[in-house]
Each structure stands twice: as structure tokens, then as C-alpha cells.
């Protein structure tokens, strides 16, 4: 790497690429989409809005946080919730921790929220994580409790 300043741009490019790929690969016309939260989700919502505009696909978005709700509204996508859509076709979200066997932790042991509750409603899950979040010890400690 040529300089420390180029590192954040590389991470942002990777996040954008992962989010765009998730929307391009997993989202289809007529689906109900779970929209997660975190630093990468805006790229996914941006790409989803582009596809809705360009390809005229119809989707319904179920946000899992206030951040996700605000993004869905910002990009003028159809908004719903788990009370109206009990099952999601796909959910795009991040993992807080990932081990070598791809065991994922969402929420890092914090309070349960609609993001965690929506896990059981998903037909498909697209989860992203930066390589720095590959942590094995935290969830194993929680497992022993």
C-alpha cells in the first residue's frame, strides 16, 4: 500500500462492492427485503434504489433499525415492517463477528432488536463483514455462559 490515506478508500470501495453485489445477486422483482444497519448498508440501499428506478423492479423494504428506516425513506423506497410482512425473501446486513467456520454473530451480544428478530424470517441472508471483524474469542466466551 502506498500510503495510510489510501487504506480507508480501499475499505469503502470494498464495502460498496459487497453491498452492490448483494443487491445485484440476491434481490429480485416482487421481493420483501430486510434492510440491516451499519456502515455498509447505505451502499446497498443506494443500489436498491438504482435498480428500482432503472429496472422498474418492485420491492418492499423492512428496516431493522432507525438508521435503516431513514435510509429507506431517504431513497424513497417502499417501507413496511415485520408486523405486515412476517417473512422476508432476503435480508442484507452485516455481521459483528465471524469465525473461520463462518459462524456469525449479529448484535455482538447486545439487546435484541428487530434486526435480530428478523433473522428467523429470512429465506436468504446476505451478510457482509470486514476482515478485521474476524474474531473468534468473543463468541466462544459467550457460548460458555
From TrEMBL:
Its EC number is 5.3.1.6. InterPro entries: NagB/RpiA_transferase-like, Ribose5P_isomerase_type_A. One of its GO terms (cellular component) is cytoplasm. The keyword Lipid biosynthesis does not apply. It comes from the Eukaryota. One of its GO terms (biological process) is pentose-phosphate shunt, non-oxidative branch. Pfam families: Rib_5-P_isom_A (PF06026). The keyword Hydrolase does not apply. Keywords: Isomerase. Pathway: Carbohydrate degradation; pentose phosphate pathway; D-ribose 5-phosphate from D-ribulose 5-phosphate (non-oxidative stage): step 1/1. GO terms for molecular function: ribose-5-phosphate isomerase activity. Belongs to the ribose 5-phosphate isomerase family. This is ribose-5-phosphate isomerase. It comes from Ciona savignyi. The lineage of its organism: Eukaryota, Metazoa, Chordata, Tunicata, Ascidiacea.
